[in-house]
Design a protein that fits this description.
heterodimer, B: alpha+beta, Serine Threonine Protein Phosphatase 5, Tetratricopeptide repeat, Methylamine Dehydrogenase, Chain H, four-stranded antiparallel β-sheet, 27 helices, about 40% helix, elongated, TAF6_C_sf (chain A), protein heterodimerization activity (chain A), transcription regulation (chain A)
Chain lengths: ~675, ~800
Amino acid sequence: MAEERRQKHCSVVLPTESMKAMAESVGVGQLQEDSCVALSEEVSYRIKEIAQDALKFMHHGKRRKLTTSDIDNALKLKNVEPLYGFQSQEFIPFRFASGGGRELHFYEEKEADLSDIINTPLPRVPLDVSLKGNQSQYIYFLFFCIFFSNGIFNFYSVLVCSSPAHWLSIEGMQPAIPENPPPATKEQQKAESTEPLKVVKPGQEEEGTIQGKSQGTTTPDGKGKEKGLIRLKPRSTHELSVEQQLYYKEITEACVGSCEAKRAEALQSIATDPGLYQMLPRFSTFISEGVRVNVVQNNLALLIYLMRMVKALMDNPTLYLEKYLHELIPAVVTCIVSKQLCLRPDVDNHWALRDFAARLMAQSCKTFSTTTNNIQSRITKTFTKSWLDDKTQWTTRYGCIAGLAELGSDVIKTLIIPRLAVEGARIKAVMEGPVVSNIDKIGAEHVQSLLLKHCASVIAKLRPQPDNVDQYRTDYGYLGPMLCSHVMKARTQAALQAQQVNRTTLTITQPRPTLSVSQSGLSGSSGPRTPSIIKVPSSLTLMSPRPGTPSQPSPPATKYIVMATSAGAASTQQVITLSSSQSASPVTSTVPSATSTLQPLVKLESGSGAGLTASRPLQKYIVVSLPSSASSSLETKSSVLPTSISSSSLDGGMKLERSESPGASTQSPH
Amino acid sequence: MIALTGKNQSYVLVLYGLCFPLIHVAHAQFILKMAAVQGGMGDADIKTDIKTEPSADGFGNNNANDGRVLSASPGSSSSTGSNKQTAAVTPEDQQTLLAVLQFLKKNKLSESVEILRREAGLPENSLDPKANESAGAGSGGAAGIVDLEGGDASSLLSRVTGSSSAGAQAPTKGTVQSGSGRDQPDVSVVLSAYSQQGDPTLYKVYYRDLKKFIETVLDCHRAELSQVFYPLFVHMYLELVYNNHESEAKAFFEKFSGDQECYYEEDLRILSGLTKKEHMRGNETLLDFRTSKFVLRISRDSYQLLKRHLQERQNNQIWNIIQEHLYIDIFDGMPRSKSQIDAMSGSLAGEAKREANKTKVYYGLLKEPEIELPLDDEDEEAENEEGKPKKKKPKKDSVGSKSKKQDPNAPSQNRIPLPELKDSDKLDKIMYMKEATKRIRLGPDNLPSVCFYTFLNAYQGLTAVDLTDDSSLIAGGFADSTVRVWSVTPKKLRKVKSAADLNLIDKESDDVLERIMDEKTASESKIMYGHSGPVYGISFSPDRNYLLSSSEDGTVRLWSLLTFTCLVAYKGHNYPVWDTQFSPYGYYFVSGGHDRVARLWATDHYQPLRIFSGHLADITCTRFHPNSNYVATGSSDRTIRLWDVLSGNCVRIFTGHKGPIHSLAFSPNGKFLASGATDGRVLLWDIGHGLMVGELKGHTDTIYSLRFSRDGEILASGSMDNTVRLWDAMKAFDDLETDDFTAATGHIHLQDNSQELLLGTYTTKSTPVIHLHFTRRNLLLAAGVSQL
């Protein structure tokens, strides 16, 4: 390959057209072809020469990227005047233009209006070079002085008070602090889970380091011994240091605790922290045990919290979950298909949990499914099997369909659509037949809307344009007519979105599934629930403190969110207002019905309870404009939850434009 | 601007003129303090030197700079002109020959054509009439230029022989004589040689022929003879280009460039860009190839084989190149293996000659000055802290006895004059010894902790870092021409008070050194402005009073860390200065840069005391030997040279790296040298024997910093691949068995034990490691700037 490159190097010469264009730009009109050839060869050679010199400057500048200043310096070396005006540290925005059979790359220099420059506020002053780290580092120093440097405490402490640096390694072991890269990169974790027999390289995080044995001793020795012997998979003992145990305790408590702000912080930490590799087995066990206990207790809120933890773990770019799927997948599937997830299935919105978990399932299928573990096909089989069973309850049925539907349009096409007629008949039996139970009816309704939601877009792509209601009826039975209208809506929406593409300035590429809790305990319902206790293997006992009585003022930062569709919303214009759960709350935002914008808007208002309104210093408005995919899901969400008090917190998924201002009323959405 | 550059150039010329007398003065004289006198002499010599330059063409030929000078000087053109006449006969002969051939072919006398061709030694592929035609046309057209080539080659040869007699590192006479013997051979040989040389299409055939031969020789010789490929390839290609056979050159390159060793790829890339004769003018790499001999080490048997083959085949073309452009260092004994050869090859001009590494090097350390260690109360305090007051005494004794014994390998104490120790230096030494007693013993079981300093908001502009020996100050050189100094201890940086304020101070008071400082200026960092280009090298003086910085603007600046102002700008390099370093004893410093020479300066002289020239490409890093008597330089020509400060001679040439060398480190005992290059390998060298003793593989990118721990047990390397790696230096050096044979022949057997020697790898978060430093207590400090 290197040879090919070399040969290419040999032949690369600037095109003669460029020579002509350049000649014209300096006023030489007619340039002979052979002089063009001669020139281009010469110029190409000189450019290569300069590039080679510039490379030298790059190497000495200790960079990997060649910058314009390197070229300037190389020119200077050759006693050539440097080029002026290319001071960009990053790429140079060359523009391309063509016309009249000519193609040109040029550097666009816009005319700058002086008055504009004068009138614009000054940009922030760039920060000066410094050696100072932030304050948090000092804490780490102290930490390690205490924990690691028994004999040399004195010696390190000098650095503690003054040092702006961080510890890259302490006596041969690399501490897992934010300044250091994660102990095991995702690739390593992946390699470890796929090729468990591979020898761990020295310098990487390894078990046993904390037990006083420095890493340097273990690895070389181990290596030497290992050479002759059969390679055994090293037994992993995941010892946690004291601070890691503390962290684990704090995080898990916050994740299932009552304080939403703390939870958000904890989830954020799980989703971003690089040093969690060691704790992953604990988290995994925590989640699976937690689900097991809380499914039995029908504790919907805690199940939701746990699913959000799974989500956060999946989002963490430094973690590779493959090794722990055997614990996580059963937990997630339980949350999708369990017969009962909450105490009052008629009131509580366990559907949202099922949706959320289904999305998680789909995500893990996408990420981890391989030909060896066959996750996707196994999951699909499981769902299909229980769906096909006649005795399956509506709740499970809903979960199965949701789980399948999230796996993508192919699955919908091959597995769901052929069964639409059968399922339609079943729904019809419940809806129009004699009232058996309210729960069944609600379940059937949800299944119906779920099917409509997922199938409509797929059918819109499958079927040819004219949507005939009768045709639909014959094809899909009971659901046909409704499906037809949904499909038509989907088509118009798609067309509209296509038009709007240019207009949309703020777009979410992928709406992240998020979920918040329906605080059913608050809506004046039955007695307080017993705090559930989760047994954790590491003998940490976690309480889930919840507000005992409805009247009890909740912690200030807890969000209660209710979604309601605005009355004046046109069919194409989704204005969704999310406001505080206490409907009497004065801050319920008023979305001007005159918003003539066609793009769907979501206005989310979150705050604390009504009692705290007066003291609340600021309110958050989140204005979101969504692309097609997002809007469709939103739309259905709003239709699913028109009356119930359950909610969807959108804050995680749609952090687009977030303005915080003390004057709430002045804030208006785009 | 134009006027300015013009001036610059003449200045350069003058300076180069200045170089030559200086070197010779340096050779002859032994007094370092003569620098001022030399400066004066240099000035006087300039005019005469420039005048004599044309006649003394080969005078400075071992000096890499002269390529540039020579190409511009009239001397070279005149010499080629004179040679033209001697060779002018041949093209005519060839033309007639070709004409006869064409006539015969036209008349379909194929037999006669064949016979004639065979006699003339033309290749067989021209049996094909079409090829013949094109070959004939090609050589006919090119015939006019052939003589030029011949003339040039011989002029080069004469230059090389001239230099060998004049130069300091003269090649041995044996082969040169055989080369000059070929200079005037009998007429028939010359004729056939030139007729072949004239035909560019034959180059391929020659090369293929040789390749076939080398591929069929016995295995033991093949590896050795394969070394010939690369230099031959380069020279044949250059000859083709030089003679304006552009298309043939391209075809030749494409056909055979893939066969070359992968570590020559960078040079090949440069070559590939070079397709015209005009390009050769001013291209330094090329001039190096043509003016310096590529050195090969070949056993006598292999050499005989090659020689016999070439003579049998009458392959004079290749034989000429071997004679003129290669230096074959023949040794008696077993041929070397492929791995042995690969370990040593890779540099721009082949391996080092064995003779080059024969000079005795005094690598031992100088005796430490006897300083009474005052056992004051402070010391006792420290002892109480440690709780082991008894243990300290024997330690100190051992330190003392060690320094009392004179190392047989050490240079005499006054071999080069060193500055007198001041009181403050003595205090510092005492501090050092105290700290040394608290030093952690490192080893595989006891790895150092690494503390990493990350420069924030540097916008990738950090180009050089240095720390003081006591780790109290850190200095950074930046691409925006600034030099910044930070204090990493609570002690802030303060300036000295102004002159008026200083007058008011009571000079007799004990704390006068404290009083002269201006409290108002205390800050954690200071910025120093003065350079006009990126600062590539930076170095603290051992007494922490000065800071040196070298920059793209061609100057080395000396800064005072008391006033934080520039004291001197040392001009001389004129091209970017890539590195500079203070001597461990202060006063002297060395700098090296793009102009391919390293200079030794003394802080109180504005002109260099020594000029070390010999490298064929940029000097990328410079390091002082711990005993201050030697200077090591690493270069883009992929060699490391060790220079004697006293004589200015090159005493060691180490080859083996496959990329520009970017870091060097001497072991604390002065015996070994470690070097790191862009190829990601660390090589270890035994200075006394002049041998490579180890290879540490592991890094995947340029190694920018190397450092031995204070006792030399551990070698730390920091690289562009965002890792710090620790190597077991003790083990690497202990395992050595340097027998007489190895020492005599220079044949090395490297074990591939990098993985065993690697003690740890610590990855940073996308932060290349630019600098490493062991504190006096063996804590490893690293510095870098985030690339995120």
